[in-house]
Every structure is written in structure tokens, then in C-alpha cells.
Amino acid sequence: MNVQPMSWNRLFVLALIFGGLWIWVTRAPAPSTASVPIAVQNAAPQRGFLAPDFELPTLDGSSVRLSDLRGKPVIVNFWATWCPPCRAEMPALQQVARRYEARGLTVLLVNQSEPPAQVRAFLDSLGITLPTLLDNGSVAFVYRVRGLPTTVFIHPDGRVEDIVTGGPLTEPFLESKVQTLLSGNP
């Protein structure tokens, strides 16, 4: 029996296939644009510009409007329960939120179109207590979320500092971003 080692070409093709599958599996669900006002459909968040405003229901029945958080640094994390990197970064988001709560940091978890009971069970299993918003895909559409997780860092004045697609984000990385938000430097 003649067994030949896998060639680099085959390995490269397998990596491309796996990468393509990963991108397809972790993409954000496409929303119906009927629920997004025309004026907002063209507004995409950009570094240095005001973050597009939104209002979403929370997991516990109230609602949160982003513009009501002006004056505080904000992290908006788009995620889903089926996303392994989302799951992996949740503890780091929780720790950073606790560490900087006294300095006004607000971390909002924006779940993508999943049933509230499923979201609650997921968060309870990890011990996550951060404010969780339920998005039908309209806010993810406005924020041009193309993959999960996507994390948006917003200065207290409402300007976008950075948008990071992919993860999991680590505690040191999140802390460096929060320090930038707290320093007020773009």
C-alpha cells in the first residue's frame, strides 16, 4: 500500500473550503428592510461619526435607546447563542463591564433574532447579567453587521471609536478599547 502525504495544494483547498463554510455559518441573518426606515437604511456607522441611534426591547421587558446613554462610554455587542466566538467572549465582556461600571461604562448585548427563552437560558448558563436587547435584524442591518460577533465601541459623546467583527475578544483587548473611550481621544 502506497500512502502519500497530503500535498500543500490539497491542504490549501481544504483550508479555503473550511474558511468559506465558517464565514457562511457565522454570518448575521438578513433582516427585512421593511422594518427599517428609508432614511436609516443608508446610514452606516463609521469611525469618528455619531453612532446610529436605535431603541430595542430588553430581555426583561423594558427598552433601551442608545441616545439615552450619551455621556457614557458604550460597548454594543451583536451576538447569537449558536456562535462559538460569541460564547467565548461573554465572560470577558461581563468582567470588563463590572470593572468599569463605576466609571460609567455600559455594555449592551444585542441578540440576533432568537427566542427570549433561548437567550435567557444561554445567558443563565454562563452567569451573564449584562443588559440584553432583542433585535429582529433591523439594528444589525443599520450597523452593517456581516458576521458575529460584531462589537461597536462608542465614546461618551456618541462617536464610534471602532467596530470589530469577529472574536472572541479578550479582556486585555476590551480594556484597551475602554481606556481609549474613557480618555476621550479618538
Concise structural overview:
The protein has helices at residues 8-25, 38-41, 84-100, 116-126, 138-142, 171-183, and strands at residues 55-57, 63-65, 74-79, 106-112, 132-135, 150-154, 160-165. It is of the alpha/beta class and 186 residues long.
- Spell the H/E element sequence: HHEEEHEHEHEEH
Largest sheet: 5 strands, mixed
Runs in which pLDDT lies below 50 for 5 or more consecutive residues are none
Give the C-alpha Rg.
Answer: 18 Å
CATH homologous group name: Glutaredoxin
How many H/I helical runs? 6
Shape: globular
Number of strands: 7
User: Could you estimate the helical fraction of the residues in percent?
Assistant: 25-40%
Strand content: 15-25%
Q: How far apart lie the N and C ends?
A: 63 Å
The CATH class assignment is: Alpha Beta
Any guess at the CATH architecture? 3-Layer(aba) Sandwich
> Number of folding domains?
1
Strand order of the largest sheet: 5-4-3-6-7
| Average pLDDT metric | 88
Structural class of the secondary elements?
alpha/beta
Enter the CATH topology name: Glutaredoxin
